[in-house]
Amino acid sequence: MTDGTFAVEPIGRVESSLVDLTEAPRQGDEGTPESWLVFVPEVAEGLRGLRPGMDVLVLTWLDRARRDVLVVHPRGDTARPATGVFGTRSPSRPNPIGLHRVTIVAIEGTRVRVRDLEALDGTPIVDVKPVLGAISER
């Protein structure tokens, strides 16, 4: 039996013009610039099958988020009732895993250009998964 600890290693980093948390859009569909997912060479084979136009889920480690927050006002709006972070998309949470639905624009080797990613420049990438369509398309 293990002690409950585990390690997650980044498989790449985000390259984006978004560098300031206070100026970044809260969600990817709120006016984000195109950005790059830059993968480490060791995972290059894992990119097989990705193609421009494909929607994927990118999981990131929100390395600049607070980990001691359990209750927030959604979107920072104090007029809204305080809500537990598990009922929100707040980046501040015990395990700050980011979940981003993006569209692939281009692929150049281990660099994947995407749109609708609100992650800051340098954010570690943890995983990428395809958005699943109907059962008949899987």
What value does the Rg take, in angstroms?
16 Å
Order of helices and strands: EEEEEEEE
Point out poorly predicted stretches.
none
How would a textbook summarize the main sheet? 6 strands, antiparallel, barrel
Q: What is the number of strand segments? A: 8
Helix segment tally? 0
Structural class by sheet pairing and helices: mainly beta
| Fraction of residues in helix | under 10%
Strands side by side in the biggest sheet: 1-2-7-6-3-8
N- to C-terminal distance: 35 Å
Note the beta-strand portion.
25-35%
Determine the mean pLDDT: 87
Overall geometric form: globular
Task: Tell me what you see in this structure.
The protein is mainly β. Helix content is 0%, strand content 32%. The protein has no helices and eight strands.
List keywords for this structure.
YaeB-like; 138 residues; tRNA (N6-threonylcarbamoyladenosine(37)-N6)-methyltransferase TrmO; TrmO-like_N; six-stranded antiparallel barrel; mainly beta; YaeB-like_sf; two-stranded antiparallel ribbon; S-adenosyl-L-methionine
Brief rundown of the structure:
The protein has 138 residues and is an all-beta fold.
Layout of helices and strands:
Layout: E1 12-15, E2 35-39, E3 55-61, E4 71-72, E5 83-84, E6 97-108, E7 111-115, E8 124-130
Antiparallel strand pairs: 1-2, 1-8, 2-7, 3-6, 3-8, 4-5, 6-7
